[in-house]
Amino acid sequence: MMRVFFLITVMISLSACYEDAEITLHQAGVYKGKLDTHSQTAEQREAILAKRFGQVQTDR
Amino acid sequence: MAKMKFLCDEERCIECNACVTACKNEHEVPWGVNRRRVVTLDDGVPGEKSISVACMHCTDAPCQAVCPVDCFYTTDDGVVLHDKDMCIGCGYCFYACPFGAPQYPQEGAFGSRGKMDKCTFCAGGPEEDHSHEELEKYGRNRLAEGKLPLCAEMCSTKSLLAGDGDVVSELFRNRVVRRQGRQEAWGWDTAYNVK
Amino acid sequence: MKLTKRNSALNTTKSGVDRRAFLKGSGIAASGAAFMSLLPPTMLQKAQASESGRHSYDEGDIKKVRSVCSHCSVGCGVVAEVQNGVWIGQEPSFEHPFNLGSHCAKGASLREHGHGDKRLKYPMKKVAGKWQRVSWEQAIEEIGDKMLSIREQSGPDSVYWLGSAKHNNEQAYLFRKFAALWGTNNVDHQARICHSTTVAGVANTWGYGAMTNSYNDIHNSKAVFIIGANPAEAHPVSLQHIFRAKEKGAPIIVVDPRFTRTAAHADQHISIRPGTDVAFVWGMLWHIFKNGWEDQEFINQRVYGIDDIRKEVAKWTPDEVERVSGANEAEVLKAAQTMAEHRPGTFIWCMGGTQHTTGNNNTRAYCIFQLVLGNMGVSGGGTNIFRGHDNVQGATDLGVLSHTLPGYYGLSTGAWKHWSKVWDLDYEWVKNRFDQSAYEESGGKPASPMNTKGIPVSRWIDGVLEDKDNIAQNDNVRAMVLWGHAPNSQTRGPEMKTAMEKLDLMVVVDPYPSISAVLSDRQDGLYLLPASTQFETYGSLSSSNRSMQWRDKIIDPLFESKPDHVIMHKFATKLGFADQLFKHIKVNGEEPLIEDITREFNKGMWTVGYTGQTPERLKLQAANLHTFNKTTLKAEGGPCDGEYYGLPWPCWGTAEMKHPGTPLLYDTSKSIAEGGLTFRARFGVEHDGENLLAEGSFSVGSEIEDGYPEFTGDMLKKLGWWDDLTADEKTAAEGKNWKTDLSGGIQRVAIKHGCAPFGNAKARAVVWQFPDPVPIHREALYTNRRDLVEKYPTYEDRRSFYRLPTRYGSIQAQDFSKDYPLIMTSGRLVEYEGGGEETRSNPWLAELQQDMFVEINPADANDAGVKHGEQVWVDGPEGGEIKVMAFVTPRVGRGVVFMPFHFGGHYQGKDLTDKYPDGTVPYVLGESCNTVFTYGYDSVTQMQETKVSLCRIRAV
User: Fold this and answer.
1) The 3-state secondary structure of C719-771, one letter per residue
2) DSSP letters of C111-153?
3) If contacts are CB pairs under 8 Å, which of residues 112-141 in chain C contact chain B?
4) What is the full DSSP assignment across B72-88?
5) pLDDT tens figures, C475-504
6) Is residue C539 a contact partner of residue C513, using CB atoms and an 8 Å limit?
7) Measuring CA to CA, how many Å separate C862 from each of C769, C858, C885?
8) How many CB atoms lie within 10 A of CB A29?
9) In chain B, domain spans
10) Do A36 and B75 touch (CB under 8 A)?
């Protein structure tokens, strides 16, 4: 009885040894963070922002 | 392709701190973290000049070069951003940056220095655009909404300009020509004998 | 190196799931885990990058609301984005003609009003030294009972109703009417301590005392002269317009004892001794007259009395100017020559010129300078007086002042009868609301308190402390209502504390507790009532250039706060005159209808032309901002075609007449119907045998090609224009003049014939009703130039002035210069506004200025043995002392020290944090500089002398 109890205790404590298997290996100079996505292309954004700039700077 | 840049026309900067406050407003930046600051040279004497400084989004960014975990990246628009999840808060980017752009919130996972925070050119960060994670970690993403950084949009005298480098320099060139030799820039009066 | 995925939580501030939690969804204040649990996963939407819309992080439409910043008088447009009743974003208002999207630090921080962390949240009452929360009903009930009992014992004049420049126009008008129906003239607001000397001096020179051109009009200035003003910090967005002039070649001249941030952008900075403005301006005129640079034709046609000015100016030789003001001949000549050679030039001043015992002399000297150069009534010229608070212009025009009713009608019987008629109340009933005895004489006859000037805000403490037999009213002021007015902007702090403690009752109505809540040691009889900000209500306001703008409501009142007009309704109901106050104003539940109030003052404000700006016209303009030209402010096409933005007053006649507003005052190059104007014929047709009417100068399209007096019904008859009036107009206009004809017919017909309803006269350089008809220099009360006191003494003490004894000479006679050798002056910072409670409670602003300080020149610092950053004591000659940080800088000249006035919450070295109600302590506290500022009041308006006094600095 004590042995079963002891076995279960050991198994439960060992379960804390679980490690997340997902590891990212660092490579010098390489960005490995999350990807930054955009719904528009850079060209589209360029045009929209140039127009916005004209709205902001009304240096007459 | 656009390359986003800031330009502060120090002839017009009156140190009103609108840019500093607009940034705080838009991104709810906490006390102690200053993504943008106004620096005043020769305070109180003739020749006093103020200039608004934040991250310059360098093409060859020193912060990016020295980061031990390489958490920085540059977007297609030339905006330098970083992934806060990867940041270990070592502070080395702060050593490297010539402008003092990296800031560290007063509380955080590392006691007195938390994850690095800096001006994002109002372009959010490497979370999905307009997600709550992006909002919490990096602030609003105005570029994805088709808007420019709020600091420049709210500058009281239109001295802080933000946008594509070509567009900004075009406007600034027009301004300089219009001013016709009334520049107080260094050396102007030597070159043009204007008092 | 092994990397594990980090927790996405960033604990930057305390998390808390409360009312603000919804707002936290739009900000980044909560920790990730706590926040994420609030929203189901479906809330996380994918980007739909829209060009101009803010992305929505939560469900709910985003509404864009247009409003106007509530900080300063530039009146920058604001676009607020509201979702589910929460203010989630602030966008620039690019189309707004005044700011083109720009803001200063304060304007950029407006959204924090929607957070309101440090706001007064519910009514509070101090009981046995502790703050207790009470309900509105209980508070109004108790306050009302106490006031009614004071009224019975001492009369209505014992309750002082101190109003605010932060009211919108409707609330300001209602407040003045409220005080009138309560039965007292003890009502005032910040204008008294800001530009009262401007209004008095300028109005008595040419008719109206307001900014003559506009901020935008400065684009056309060929020179910009700034004296006693620091717009780079006080009106930052105005620099946008000044720079346009500068970048076209206009020289900027700044005259200021300090090298201010504005001076840093100027071509010439001249430092003068505080209080020597008249000496300096006369010094410039000395050169102008000597070189014949004056515009003689303009003077001949439109100015009276220049010869008397010439006589006075002849005394101000360069040596005397230098002896008195410190400005040498070369710099004075250069300034004068610059202004003479670059016309039209504009002339700007603020508190540096107004806050003196000779403030009215200063303001008139400035006007005379512009008249001599012929810079009035032209685009690019004018006297561009930058007002202070967002609606101080409106509150001034609507008469929240102790010496007039709305519209500057004054307090004569005629004025009361006019307004009684507009209010549709029986004049006798209104008269009986007042104390019926007389305590002073006017024109040899006893004058009732209804017709005598009330106590001004600068002297309210004397109303409490002075021996009641010396006050021209029945009893002392026993109850004080500080409604939207900070106390730390008035001088003599220690006496104010005593006055507050002596009062029977003190009521503070404000979004924030303000220093009033903590300055005194009162243990009870102190109530705090939470007012809403201007973003929680709607209405019109008048910006400095006389434009009226309309604000829309952004959010509902936060916590238990209520808008001012709702609170007034509550008081009026309790005090028993709500029916009269709201006779023609609809009340929905407990809220009076704002538009009805606008319409009511439209019916009565004929003097300044607040009659054509109806809510409909203003709202239409607010919806079409993009159609207004950014320099002329005229709408080019669109629904408002031809109108000027804000229908700047005077907007003559009724709305049907569709007058476009008057963008530039006194401009005769346009017809009156198109916004032109003449100088007002306010002072009679002749004086001492000389013609006061204009000679040979008249507006384009004027049928009378010469000067003419103000229009009356009889005058119309004489001119043969009477029959141009309709039958209804004839009934109303019979025996009336342009100010009292409620149909507006006289104005309409006069304008139809190209004439200004108020006449066409000369501006007068000599104001014979003032103590100094020709402006002269007088030394300040607390001066360290004892050698000049004999030649330039101050006035004699007065027995009764605005009901109170007022001292001048008896103070100047004492020599404080040995013990208090430094000249003390005060001013503004860009991050804060006014008394500072509102802005110091905003974390984004407070972070930028965390310490109260005194600017000391390095030489004076060394003399006093203090170092930069150390705490020092600043002692004033009346016994006040404050402990502040020393800021050693060459910005301020030797012998002068400067302090900002926005701080409060420390008192003579003691921190008052514990006295604030819970949760309302501002982020930054500091000493109030007015604890050490001293006695000294203008000889015409009782403006306080906060720009020049004496002090000493000693190390802690």
Assistant:
1) HCCHHHCCHHHHHHHCCCECCCCCCCHHHHHHHHCCCCCCCEECEECCCCCCC
2) THHHH-TTS--S-EEEETTEEEE--HHHHHHHHHHHHHHHHHH
3) 112
4) EEE-TTS-EEE-TTT--
5) 999 999 999 999 999 999 999 999 999 999
6) no
7) 48, 6, 15
8) 9
9) 4-192
10) yes
ipTM: 0.93
- N- to C-terminal Cα separation, chain C: 55
CA distance C13 to C31: 8
Q: Is the peptide bond before C487 cis (omega within 30 degrees of 0)?
A: no
Residues of A engaging B, defined by a Cβ cutoff of 8 Å: 26-40, 42-43, 45-46, 48-50, 52-53, 56-57, 59
CB-based contacts of C688: which residues, under 8 Å, 6+ apart?
none
C851: left (phi over 0), alpha (psi -120 to 50) or beta: beta
| Nearest to C238, CA basis, from C423, C342, C444, C384 | C384
What is the C-alpha to C-alpha distance for residues C662 and C652, in angstroms, rounded to an integer? 9
Confidence of residue C2 (pLDDT cuts 50, 70, 90): very low
Strands (E), C151-291: 159-162, 187-188, 223-227, 252-255, 268-270
B4-192 is classed CATH 3.30.70.20: yes
**What integer is the mean pLDDT of C213-221?**
96
Q: With contacts defined as CB-CB under 8 Å, which chain B residues touch A59?
A: 158, 171, 174-175
> Model pTM?
0.92
d(CA C365, CA C384): 14
Name which of C915, C162, C793 is nearest C503 in CA terms.
Answer: C162
pLDDT tens-digit series, residues C687-696: 999 999 999 9
- Residue B46 touches partner C, C-beta closer than 8 Å: yes
Do strands C268-270 and C303-304 pair parallel, antiparallel, or not at all (unpaired)?
Answer: unpaired
Residues with Cβ < 8 Å from C406, sequence gap 6 or more? C173, C176, C177, C397, C398, C399, C419, C601, C604, C605
A17 vs chain C: nearest CA distance in angstroms?
15
Give contacts of A60 with chain C, Cβ < 8 Å: 630-631
Please, how many CA atoms are within 13 Å of residue C287, restricted to the half-sphere of its CB? 22
Partners of B146 on chain A (C-beta within 8 Å) are 45, 48-49, 52
Q: Phi/psi class of residue B78: alpha, beta or left (left: φ > 0; alpha: ψ in -120 to 50)?
A: left
Helix, strand or coil, per DSSP, at residue C280? helix
Nearest CA to C85 out of C733, C553, C769, C645 is that of C553
Contact in structure between C541 and C648 (CB atoms under 8 Å):
no
Instruction: Classify C535 as helix, strand or coil.
Output: helix
Q: What is the pLDDT of residue B176?
A: 85
Sign for the pseudo-dihedral over CA of C205, C208, C210, C215: negative
Integer Cα distance of B33 and B114 in angstroms: 11
DSSP-derived 3-state class of residue A37:
coil
CB-closest option in B73, B128, B163 to A49: B163
For residue A24, the distance in angstroms to the closest alpha carbon of chain B comes to: 10
Tokens of C433: 């609301």
Backbone phi and psi for residue C202, each to the nearest 5 degrees, phi listed first: -75, -45
Which residues touch A9 (CB under 8 Å, ≥6 apart)? none
Cβ(C444)–Cβ(C405) below 8 Å: no
Cα C641-C643-C646 angle, rounded to 5 deg: 130
Is residue C777 within 8 A of residue C276, CB to CB? The reply is yes
Q: Is the pLDDT of residue B105 over 70?
A: yes
Residue C850 CB: number of other CB atoms within 10 A? 13
Q: What angle do CA C607, C348, C189 make, to 5 degrees?
A: 50
**Distances from the Cα of B178 to the Cα of A59, B151, C387, C716, angstroms:** 10, 24, 31, 53
Bond preceding residue B126 cis, omega within 30 of 0: no
